[in-house]
Design goal:
three-stranded antiparallel sheet; 2 domains; alpha+beta
Length: about 170
């Protein structure tokens, strides 16, 4: 036995973790989809209009989740939008919160390019990262947090008129 043949390589570790993550996410998606299988009004089973792959970015790389397109309403209740993807609502950013957290935290401390390199070096992300994507995720996260603050955000700005006045004699 040699140290370099002991255990698994980093690439093998990444592949195993990505495979496990794929199974777990697909099962979680199946559980989520179970609640959409019936129409809420009449209780009859929804009709599927096919499937598409939903890309989900994780710390372990980009995974594909099989997502059905379901009829929005019973045939008896016509509606302008005929189908919807039930997984689109719980996964609007197509990125897991743990990856968003790492991107946002490290991008607040370093440039987007350095954050990209750090993520690729430290975590087992299988797919190449892009500094522009990380920048977009940071901005989206900041906007979401500001929306969650709602009207409370005004209390963070202290407005004392004497503090805002400029002493013209000092100029």
């Amino acid at each position: 036995m040699k140290p370099e043949t002991l255990s698994l390589t980093l690439a093998e570790d990444k592949a195993i973790l990505k495979g496990i993550r794929q199974i777990v996410i697909q099962r979680q998606a199946g559980t989520c989809l179970a609640s959409y299988r019936q129409y809420p009004d009449c209780g009859s089973r929804r009709t599927s209009k096919g499937y598409h792959d939903l890309s989900l970015r994780t710390v372990f790389g980009c995974l594909k989740v099989k997502s059905p397109r379901l009829l929005r309403h019973c045939e008896y209740r016509p509606h302008a939008v005929k189908t919807f993807s039930p997984l689109a609502a719980p996964l609007p950013e197509h990125t897991t919160p743990e990856l968003l957290f790492l991107e946002t935290k490290w991008a607040s401390l370093r440039s987007y390019g350095m954050t990209t390199q750090l993520l690729e070096d430290v975590v087992p992300v299988g797919d190449p990262l892009n500094a522009f994507t990380i920048r977009t995720h940071v901005l989206d996260t900041a906007e979401r947090l500001e929306r969650e603050l709602d009207e409370e955000q005004n209390c963070f700005i202290v407005r004392i008129p004497t503090m805002w006045m400029v002493d013209s004699s000092a100029m």
